[in-house]
Design brief:
Low-confidence stretches: none
Strand content: 15-25%
Order of helices and strands: EEEHEEHHHEHEHEEHH
Largest sheet: 6 strands, mixed
Distance between the termini: 52 Å
Shape: globular
Strand order of the largest sheet: 5-6-7-3-8-9
Number of helices: 8
Structural class: alpha/beta
């Protein structure tokens, strides 16, 4: 039997996105391959969220081409995304995950066991029966991660998942993200937190005004940024 096609690599070739005459992304070319997390950084309005939505298949390119391994934009079933402010369904924590499990690409022969394992992974094993909307912001973000993982993704997009969290909740989410990445899921994460980028990134995409100015291994980017914009951003001086 042939192995099913993979979502990876995601290949973006000369893509621009425009809306109402405004350039959102401009001439983006990159490859998102299996491996350590890719972290997107840049000033507010630089296009990080738009690039994540493009790579997820949520917005179409105006020009250029994007391919998801052996899939098309609407065919992939092993992509998942977690937003900065996830919406909790009006049901229990376990019920939120059960809903995602039923709609996922991979049928689970033992859904209760799968839900229990996902709750354990995100440190919420005792909160399964609790109404999800009554949890703290950090706990809700962990439910969102478990819900995304119920789809058994090859690639998980995270759009500033810790932006509204306190330090303890941020560490809890980062620890989960590191576990997910170590298990072989490709993480693509947008963040405004340079400390988080340093802690999690294998490679860094630095964006300004809808363009990618640098895409390099994280250790090289932080040690020796190539562009003056990146140097100013790391110094806290670049505001667009």
């Amino acid at each position: 039997m042939r192995a099913p096609p993979s979502e990876l690599p995601i290949t973006v070739e000369g893509v621009s996105v425009r809306s109402g005459g405004v350039i959102i992304l401009e001439r983006i070319s990159l490859v998102l391959a299996p491996g350590a997390p890719t972290v997107l950084i840049g000033p507010n309005g630089s296009g990080k969220t738009s690039l994540i939505r493009l790579a997820m298949g949520l917005i179409p390119p105006t020009t250029g081409r994007i391919a998801w391994g052996g899939y098309g934009a609407t065919e992939g079933r092993r992509r998942a995304i977690v937003f900065q402010r996830p919406v909790m369904l009006r049901r229990s924590v376990a019920g939120n995950i059960a809903f995602a499990l039923r709609s996922g690409a991979i049928a689970s022969p033992a859904p209760r066991d799968r839900i229990a394992a996902l709750l354990d992974l995100v440190g919420l094993a005792a909160l399964g029966p609790r109404p999800a909307r009554r949890l703290s912001g950090g706990e809700q973000q962990r439910v969102a991660l478990a819900r995304a993982l119920a789809r058994d993704p090859e690639i998980l997009f995270l759009d500033e998942p810790t932006a509204n969290l306190d330090p303890a909740a941020t560490k809890a989410v980062e620890d989960i993200v590191a576990k997910i990445a170590a298990a072989g899921v490709k993480i693509v994460l947008a963040t405004h937190d340079l400390g988080e980028a340093r802690r999690l990134a294998g490679d860094v995409i630095f964006m300004v005004a809808g363009r990618i100015l640098e895409h390099r291994p994280a250790k090289d980017f932080f040690a020796r940024p190539v562009t003056p914009e990146a140097q100013r951003f790391l110094n806290g001086d670049l505001v667009i």
